[in-house]
């Protein structure tokens, strides 16, 4: 098992981000959540907000408008209705 999380952020028009990261924080419909490598599988709806990608000492932020998050053995995939880098 790797010590990095594979994260993919996809909007209808394109893949906005894909890569190996340390942690992702996202705005769940029932509250914010964070995902690290090895997280238990789950799927949830997302609300409008900011997805923050942590990679070492750097962070990147993406504004999203709804969608779904899927955490599984391969990592985290967010399918957003709309996503742009903040």
List keywords for this structure.
0% helix, 5-stranded mixed sheet, 71% strand, 10 strands, 86 residues, mainly beta
Task: Write the topology of this structure.
Elements: E1 5-11, E2 14-21, E3 23-28, E4 31-36, E5 42-46, E6 49-55, E7 58-64, E8 67-72, E9 75-80, E10 83-85
Parallel strand pairs: 1-9
Antiparallel strand pairs: 1-2, 3-4, 3-6, 5-8, 6-7, 7-10, 8-9
Short structural summary:
The chain is mostly beta strands and 86 residues long. It has strands spanning 5-11, 14-21, 23-28, 31-36, 42-46, 49-55, 58-64, 67-72, 75-80, 83-85.
If you had to describe this structure to a student in words, what would you say it looks like?
With 86 residues, this protein is mainly beta. Helices cover 0% and strands 71% of the residues. It is built from no helices and ten strands. Strands 2-1-9-8-5 form a five-stranded mixed sheet, with no helix packed on it. 23% of the residues are buried. The model has no long low-confidence stretch (mean pLDDT 96).
Strand order of the largest sheet: 2-1-9-8-5
Task: Give helix % range.
Answer: under 10%
Measured on Cα atoms, how large is the radius of gyration? 12 Å
Main beta sheet: strand number and arrangement? 5 strands, mixed
Termini separation comes to 31 Å
Instruction: Give the structural class.
Output: mainly beta
């Amino acid at each position: 098992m790797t010590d990095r999380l594979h994260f993919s952020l996809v909007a209808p028009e394109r893949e906005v981000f894909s890569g190996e990261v340390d942690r992702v924080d996202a705005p769940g419909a029932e509250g914010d959540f964070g995902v690290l490598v090895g997280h238990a599988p789950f799927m949830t709806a997302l609300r409008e907000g900011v997805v923050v990608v942590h990679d070492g000492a750097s962070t990147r932020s993406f504004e999203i408008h709804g969608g779904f998050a899927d955490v599984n053995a391969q990592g985290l995939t967010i399918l957003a209705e709309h996503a742009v880098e903040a």
